[in-house]
Structures are given as structure tokens and as C-alpha cells.
Amino acid sequence: MQPALPKTQTATPSPGLLARADRKRRQMLDAVFGRRMRSIDAQLCPPGGLPADDIHSILVIRPNHRLGNTVLISPLLRELETLYPGAEIDILASGGAAQILFSTRFQTHRVITLDRRMPRHPVRTLRQLRATCNTPYDLAIDASMDSNMGRLILGRSTARYKLSFPLQEPAEGEMARYREDCPAHFALRNVHLLRTASGRGTQDPWPTLNVLLSENELARGRKALHALFAHTDPLPPNAFVLGVFANATADKRYPGDWWSRFMQALLDAHPDLHVVDVLADHGRSQLPVASRPFYSRDLRKLGSVLANMDAFISADCGVMHLASAVGVPTLGLFSRDNSDKYAPYGGCNQSLDTHAGSEVEHTAQSAARWLGQLRQARRGDTLREGISA
Questions:
Q1: Which pLDDT belongs to residue 34?
Q2: What pLDDT, on a 0 to 100 scale, did the predictor assign at position 231?
Q3: What per-residue confidence (pLDDT) applies to 289?
Q4: 325 neighbors 211 (Cβ within 8 angstroms)
Q5: Which residue among 1, 191, 281, 379 is least packed, with the fewest CB closer than 10 Å?
Q6: 230-251: string of b/e by CB count within 10 Å (b at 16+)?
């Protein structure tokens, strides 16, 4: 018998146990709602059936409170803004992240925020859902992928056109086109869905994650970043600032010893780095190296500081997606075999898979090469600017 854990510790369920619990939950939900959810396939807009105009009000359904899942719908929002520049967009979300990140977008009409603990507020939640489903939208999109709740809301919606991936996968037929050449990355699947429905195809470049920071936000973030170093080690004009976020959930989190070895190897390769320790919500440093801490629970304030850094390294988590969405070159560290679905993409973004037992130093060497490429590219840009001047 294993000894009981001290009261100050909590046991973290193993990935296998979590996967089995998730499968059991899905089986139970399928037994209760399966027939209803599969029947929604008949309501979906067929490929090529979405008009190029006559879409003025749009509902994007993503009832999930996690930061990363929220940021991952931003390419869909950008695609909708491009396809329907005169339309208004409502977003049905959970928690507060969507309100903070997307309410300032020009085409966002409102963000309908469900309480992240919906079972504790059933009456209020049902009122919100009923009002949303009864609103006569022109287009409703289930951007939740495998969420039963998102699909049920779509089915109850009175929208004229409804988009979601069909649950039944016919070997042939027009609905099967939604899954043909569909990207693996979760941020791009809904863009593929919309492009297929509108008949646009996928020849255009994929939109990146984006939260559209204002010039004022960027300027304030730049000032805050320089203030971190002002008293002890002011940033020189050619300083290279690296942000590091050392937190994540469950088995995506690396232990302190791992980060110690990783950062030491990284600083051996780049000893002149100026490191900012981006603190998690609990406000405690998890980075065992000399660095400047930065803490903010305001997502747009955090994003404005990240945007002024030269590079950012993080485990797979919401802050990693936020960094990618504000434009800082981002390196994601993946302890799970899912980087094809969640890795930062576009520009100079990259990912490193550590789940196959890679040595910490080997991972650090790959990260150091990535930083070297960024620094070389920046020196090239500086040289070209000098020549132009």
C-alpha cells in the first residue's frame, strides 16, 4: 500500500487515467445525446452552400473557459472578418478570456459569457442559452470541435445557416468534403470548414493567431518591459529579450530541475540574453535562473509586454498561444504527442517534442539554434536598415 500524500500535496492523475475517464464520459454522453447530436448533421450547410453576401449577423460558439482554446478561435474570427467585412459577430464563450481578448475587435458586437461553473448557476445559464438560440442569426458556427455542448447549442440555434463538422463520416458524398485535406491544427480546422462551406478553397495563406493589440497597448507594453531592467541593468539598444513561461497543467509541466538544466544550457550558448520570467497566475517564480519577473492577470496587458520581447519559450499552455497571437516568435515545448494540433505556427514559430525521452540538453541545444537563427535574422534586418538610411 502506498503511503498517503501529505495534506499539502495533491495527486495528479496519470494521462492514462484521464484518457479513460474522458472516454467513459463521452460514452455516457453519447448514450444520452448521441442520436440527437447526429441528427444535427441534417441541419448543416453543405460545402459551397454558404452565400458570399446576405450574411450580416454571425454567432461563433466556443463554450470553453481555457485561455488556449479561446485564443485558437482567433484565426476563424479573422477569416470571418475577411469574408464578411460588413457583418457583426457574437461570440458565445465561457469564463472571461474571450471578453478580454475579443470584445475590442471592430466587428465584435458582443461576447456572451457563460459562467465557467455552469452547473452552479443553472437558471442563469439556461436563460442565456435560450436567448442566444432564439436570436435570428444568419450564420452560426460550432467552433468547439468535439464539444457536445457546442453542437447541441448549434442544433437549437435558429440561424439560417449552420456550420460544424458532420459527426457521421460518409465514404462519399458532398458532406465528406469537409474532412478532405482538413488541417491537423485545431486553429485551422474551423477556417477550413468556413472556406469549404463558402467555396473559397484553401489556396489563400492560413490566418495566424491574433488578438489585435492597439498601438497604445504596444507602447505601454514596451515601457513596462524596459522598466523591468531600468534600475539594475538597463536594456542596451541591441538587447535580446527572451521571455520564459515555466508553468503548464498536469503532465505538460516540466519540473524545476528540468528548467534549471535547460536554462543553464541555453545561457551557455547565449550568455548575453536578458531573461524575463513570466509568472503564472499563482504569482510564484518557477524559473531557477537569474531573471526579471513579470506578473499580470490582465491578458491584454500581459500580451502587450510579450509582444515587445524578441523571443518566447513556453511549455504547451494558453500563455504559449497568447504569445503567438501577439506576434512574438514563440517556441513551444511539447511533452505530449500533439504538437501537430497545438504547436505555434507561422512566421518564426516552432515547436520541440520532448515526449520521446529527449535529453534536456538536447532540447536546449535545439532551442539555442532557434534563438541563433532569430538573432542572425535580426542582425540582417538591422544591417539592411542601416544601408537604407
A1: 63
A2: 80
A3: 81
A4: yes
A5: 1
A6: eeeeeeeeeebbbbbbbbbeee
Coil vs helix vs strand at 172: coil
The CA distance from 114 to 112, in Å, is 7
- Which residue in the block uniquely carries the three cell numbers 541545444? 365
The residue behind cell 468556413 is: 194
Exposed, middle or buried: residue 159 (CB in 10 Å: 0-12, 13-18, 19+)? Answer: buried
pLDDT of residue 13: 55
Instruction: Render the burial of 303-334: b for 16+ CB within 10 Å, e for the rest.
Output: bbbbbbbbbbbbbbbbbbbbbbbbbbbbbbbb
Residue 85 burial by Cβ neighbours in a 10 Å radius (0-12, 13-18, 19+)? exposed
Give the separation between CA 67 and CA 194, rounded to whole angstroms: 23
Helix (H) or strand (E) holding 167: none
| Cα gap 63→150, rounded to integer Å | 7
Grid cell at residue 290: 537569474
| Contacts by residues 127-136 (CB-CB < 8 Å, ≥ 24 positions apart) | 129/153, 129/156, 132/59, 132/90, 132/92, 132/157, 133/157, 133/158, 134/158, 135/57, 135/59, 135/90, 136/57, 136/160
Which pLDDT does position 26 carry in this prediction?
59
Structural domains present in the chain: 40-198 (3.40.50.2000), 215-388 (3.40.50.2000)
Ranges of residues in the chain with a pLDDT under 70 are: 1-35, 169-172, 202, 356-357, 380-389
List all residues 6 or more positions away from 216 whose beta carbon is below 8 Å from its beta carbon: none
Within 10 angstroms of residue 293's Cβ, the number of other Cβ atoms is 13
Output the nine-digit C-alpha cell for 109. Answer: 458586437
Q: Which pLDDT tens digit goes with each residue over 225-255?
A: 999 998 877 888 889 999 999 999 988 999 9
Residues 263, 287 contacting (CB under 8 angstroms)? yes
CB-count exposure of residue 2 (10 Å: 0-12, 13-18, 19+): exposed
Q: Which residues touch 90 (CB under 8 Å, ≥6 apart)? A: 57, 58, 59, 60, 108, 109, 110, 111, 112, 132, 135, 137
pLDDT at 29: 56
Cα angle 106, 108, 112 (rounded to 5 degrees) comes to 155
Can you give the pLDDT at residue 139? 98
- The span from the CA of 306 to the CA of 186, in Å, is 23
pLDDT digits (tens, 9 = 90+) for 127-148: 999 999 999 999 999 998 777 8
